[in-house]
From TrEMBL:
A Gene Ontology BP annotation from the UniProt entry: transmembrane transport
One GO CC term, this protein: membrane
Name under which the protein is recorded: Mitochondrial carrier domain-containing protein
Taxonomic lineage of the native organism: Eukaryota, Viridiplantae, Streptophyta, Embryophyta, Tracheophyta
Keyword vocabulary terms for this entry: Membrane, Repeat, Transmembrane, Transport
Organism per entry: Cynara cardunculus var. scolymus
Membrane topology listed for this record: Multi-pass membrane protein
Predominant localisation class: membrane
Family designation: Belongs to the mitochondrial carrier (TC 2.A.29) family.
UniProt keyword ATP-binding, yes or no: no
Solcar repeats: 34-125, 145-231, 240-330
């Protein structure tokens, strides 16, 4: 998830550098017109809209990711996207594709708000620090320095948002993974049941894997989006902002998911440890879980569910960036704090 296209950054001499500065200044001026509340609202709504649109694919991804926990090898070989989708419709009904979507929205509203807002703040702090250290203003920042600032800002934003909202993410996973037997009846029932049966730390199972994954995930996602959007607008300023946001967001989603999917799979499985009174499967921490999955399911096991994940992130990340940019533009015109 990400944010604006600010960052200017072309190596080379005179005319090229002047051209970059010319295109960047209006963007920075536009950003200064967006207040904190508007930015938080835009980020939260963008995340909720995106997740609701892609909820069926998100649920399929989770079901594929956790299959290896309680399935034998023959069952795993028979698994397919179409077969699992058909099973959901026949056994649980079409609405089951959105099972757990309420808690997804409850999680995504604060998560997206915090991650978008934190990214902008961390990026601004990094730019100001670089300016103090080097004496070069933000318009003169070179490509590598700008990319590092966006990578660091995205990683820190992801860690900040994930740490604050993690219990809701765990509840979302458990609700989505339920099939015919309903053990958790809703958000509050799940929170109470997990706290009572597994202790308060049960709400943070898999947090280590989550932080290891979400930092790189948002670092890659924000930096790819921000860099690609800045370059695109520099080369083709007449193109539709909606098209640019959709395309660059989709690209950033593919890049970040490819790199961090194995950690996301481990996080999902650790979140389901002990769910519904089942026996624990993984007892050796993050890296031990990796080894256990690879030994039992092979290298393919840590990428189980990557296909529906790709189907999901291409529209999902594109939608979240497009919605964020559009809402921010609309809210900037009515923001009383500007």
């Amino acid at each position: 998830m990400q944010t604006e296209a600010t960052v200017g950054v072309v190596e080379g001499g005179g005319p090229a550098r002047k051209l970059v500065a010319h295109h960047q200044r209006p963007v920075q001026h536009q950003q200064s017109q967006v207040g904190t509340v508007s930015q938080l609202i835009a980020g939260g709504v963008a995340g909720a809209v995106s997740k609701t649109c892609t909820a069926p694919l998100a649920r399929l991804t989770i079901l594929f990711q956790v299959q290896g926990m309680h399935s034998d090898a023959s069952t795993l070989r028979k698994a397919s996207l179409w077969r699992e989708a058909s099973r959901i419709v026949s056994e649980e009904g079409f609405r089951a594709f959105w099972k757990g979507n309420l808690v997804t929205i409850a999680h995504r509203l604060p998560y997206s708000s915090i991650s978008f807002y934190a990214f902008e703040r961390y990026k601004n702090v990094g730019t100001n620090l670089l300016q103090l250290i080097t004496g070069v203003d933000s318009h003169g920042t070179n490509i590598s320095a700008g990319l590092f600032i966006r990578l660091a800002g995205g990683g820190l934003a992801g860690i900040t948002a994930a740490s604050v909202t993690y219990p809701l993410d765990l509840v979302r996973t458990r609700l989505s993974a339920q099939r015919n037997v309903i053990y958790y009846r809703g958000i509050w029932h799940a929170l109470r049941t997990i706290s009572r049966e597994e202790g308060i730390f049960g709400l943070y199972k898999g947090l280590g894997a989550c932080l290891l994954g979400v930092g790189p995930n948002l670092a890659i996602s924000f930096s790819v989006y921000d860099t690609a959007r800045s370059y695109w607008q520099l080369q083709r300023p007449e193109d539709s902002a909606v098209l640019v946001s959709l395309a660059c967001g989709s690209l950033s989603g593919i890049a970040s998911s490819t790199v961090t999917f194995p950690l996301d799979l481990v996080r999902r499985r650790m979140q389901l440890e002990g769910a519904g009174g089942r026996a624990r499967v993984y007892k050796t921490g993050i890296f031990g879980t990796f080894g256990q999955i690879i030994r039992a399911e092979g290298i393919r096991g840590i990428y189980r569910g990557i296909l529906p994940e790709y189907y999901k992130v291409v529209p999902s990340i594109g939608i979240v960036f497009m919605t964020y940019e559009k809402l921010k533009q609309v809210l900037s015109n009515i923001d009383p704090c500007r």
